[in-house]
Write a structure and sequence with these properties.
about 150 residues; alpha+beta; 3 helices
Length: about 150
């Protein structure tokens, strides 16, 4: 009887501490989720008959967010795209194209082949120009990026 009482005294605070930690963690997670943006709920595989929800057509919100920004917004931020990829032979490709204010653009490309050869187009300043006349195209040095699909 005394042993069970001592065990109950020792384990009760641990259980209480566990629940206090759980409540604090739960509150912090809920608070952080309320501060940060939530995921887009643009797609639903159960929405039969709706090509936008099924992903066959691009939703208007995604098109707006992924399209190149107008020049008026480039004063506060850059319009940038970054791609990378690696295959099973350890070949690596990195591409970064950014568009800034005053019709400037930067391009950076790095390609590493399986035999160890590397090719790169390093970033240089002052020479790049955005493609004029086409709002969906961007040219920097000899690299051009065009938005094909909205």
């Amino acid at each position: 009887m005394i042993v069970s009482f001592i065990v109950a005294l020792i384990t009760a605070p641990l259980e209480l501490i566990y629940w206090i930690k759980w409540l604090i963690t739960y509150a912090v997670i809920r608070f952080c989720k309320s501060l940060y943006h939530k995921r887009f709920e643009l797609y639903d595989i159960n929405a039969l008959g709706d090509p936008i929800k099924l992903g066959y057509l691009v939703p208007p919100l995604e098109k707006e967010l992924e399209s190149p920004r107008p020049d008026s917004q480039l004063l506060e931020s850059a319009d940038e795209v970054f791609f990378y990829g690696v295959n099973s032979k350890s070949e690596c490709l990195l591409v970064r194209i950014a568009r800034g204010f005053n019709q400037t653009a930067c391009a950076w490309i790095y390609l590493k082949l399986a035999n160890g050869k590397t090719y790169n187009l390093t970033e240089s300043t002052g020479v790049q120009q955005s493609s004029k006349g086409n709002a969906n195209s961007l040219r920097a040095e000899n690299c051009r990026c065009t938005t094909c699909v909205p």
